[in-house]
Amino acid sequence: xxxxxxxxxxxxxxxxxxxxxxxxxxxxxxxxxxxxxxxxxxxxxxxxxxxxxxxxxxxxxxxxxxxxxxxxxxxxxxxxxxxxxxxxxxxxxxxxxxxxxxxxxxxxxxxxxxxxxxxxxxxxxxxxxxxxxxxxxxxxxxxxxxxxxxxxxxxxxxxxxxxxxxxxxxxxxxxxxxxxxxxxxx
Amino acid sequence: xxxxxxxxxxxxxxxxxxxxxxxxxxxxxxxxxxxxxxxxxxxxxxxxxxxxxxxxxxxxxxxxxxxxxxxxxxxxxxxxxxxxxxxxxxxxxxxxxxxxxxxxxxxxxxxxxxxxxxxxxxxxxxxxxxxxxxxxxxxxxxxxxxxxxxxxxxxxxxxxxxxxxx
Lengths: 186, 166
Prior knowledge:
The structure holds two protein chains of two kinds. By secondary structure, chain A is α/β, with parallel strands linked by helices. Chain A has a single domain, classed as Rossmann fold (3-Layer(aba) Sandwich), CATH 3.40.50.970. Chain A contains eight helices and eight strands; from the N terminus they run αβαβαβααβββαβαβα. Chain A has a six-stranded parallel sheet, sandwiched between helices. In chain A, strands 5-6 form a two-stranded antiparallel ribbon. Chain B is α/β, with parallel strands linked by helices. Chain B has a single domain (4-157), classed as Rossmann fold (3-Layer(aba) Sandwich), CATH 3.40.50. Chain B is built from six helices and six strands, in the order αβαβαβαβαβαβ. Chain B has helices spanning 4-13, 28-36, 48-60, 72-88, 107-122, 135-149, and strands at residues 18-21, 43-44, 65-70, 93-97, 126-130, 153-157. A six-stranded parallel sheet of chain B has the order 2-1-3-4-6-5, with helices on both faces.
């Protein structure tokens, strides 16, 4: 499965949930599939999608909050998984697109070919952690986790297949912040 | 000396309502006071840059966050400050202990202590040195930077300003 296929499965299920997207191809590809004001596209600060998402979830406990993360980001900030499990926000869904490489810098390998990140999440105390490998598994898994008490974790295995001819996020960082904050407040 | 309890009351009075940090002995009294009041919801961060991310999310979710750290954490946080806070204009109040100030400290603190201010200046992180008589004034400045300019603001804390409890 390509990352874009995973995003095309996920996108129709999203409503108005604040969504923090990891830097690199995750932000770029999802932007091209569906640009929403609830999308916080992280363009730098690698590793921090999870902590930013945790902050949003804690500040807005009544709203389901999504993190659309990558394996490289998760591996860079594995301690943040412990913070998420410890704070235990019931409204947080942590989705990881795992392509086993740092794709935007040239497909250098991460460690997730050998490390099962959903097992790490489960071990630190996420309430549920699922792993899917086929497009048709994504929507049922997401719906199941959406109904569950968080924090929950969904790992989606994909192949590194980003189409680099796709454009970058066209909004400026301040525009991304403003519309995200308006959508959270509204 | 500045009372940890009084300073936290000043922070709350200024509207700050989200607290996280990575400890330093110079801030141990402050953190003990934050932990003593469960309603403040102090969150231990595992790394300083994770604290920066946490505060950024909390701010965008409607909170006014405070991040406590030792200046050793500035090194870990520089990329977060420069590629998140400063470009998206996401403010945070940073309370940073100034280990190695004046060159008299354990070896691991000496270099950062010496370059602490230069590093903040070079990276465009505005700051003030907190002392026992200027807290109201520097918090007023901090609120201006945070609410109007929407940039992070750092308060440097020297040894002996707050009571230490370790």
